[in-house]
Amino acid sequence: DQQVKQNSPSLSVQxxxxxxxxxxxxxSMFDYFLWYKKYPAEGPTFLISISSIKDKNEDGRFTVFxxxxxxxxxxxxxxxxxxxxxxxxxxxxxNYGGSQGxxxxxxxxxxxxxx
Amino acid sequence: DTGVSQxxxxxxxxxxxxxxxxxxxxxxxxRLYWYRQTLGQGPEFLTYFQNEAQLEKSRLLSDRFSAERPxxxxxxxxxxRTEQGDSAMYLCASSWDSxxxxxxxxxxxxVL
Lengths: 115, 112
What we know:
heterodimer; A: mainly beta; 6-stranded mixed beta sheet; B: mainly beta; 11 strands; globular
């Protein structure tokens, strides 16, 4: 039973265009969401996060949107660059008793940005 | 470099052997987490420390697995009597609060 779902295993985008990566979750108790980027043979690198009390957070070329009613979040990268090619993981932080912040991850979406 | 470090980066062992991995978190971080990642999956939570106290363990952490953080600084993860199903990337992360976790490069374990 996956609580965080990234339904697109891969995405290909032209350099300079927008990349939109999607994530759905099932647990309404999640209160904090994060996006990580991962290159092969490296650990995940934190990109951007959003609290459940917000619907948008922006950091440079990266914007995360949260739609709580739909239990959906998305990461927008504008403009996309070849160096953005990596696997992107969506993660959620539970806020129920006994949990101290362990993250629940989706399976990832592999983004390829073509020059 | 003041990021999270993990050693070794790669470990190949034979089934039935014991292995131990080390994680050095970012120095001012009081929380330390262990995750496991297999091919095609996202990282899966194993256990969590706040300072030296182990506060949470996943059901994935069988009795062959043990983790310690003796002085609230570095941590070790030991797997006893390794099985082929233990082959994975073992990731360590640290944080100051319960939100943003920063990951190390991981230790890739291969059990033959």
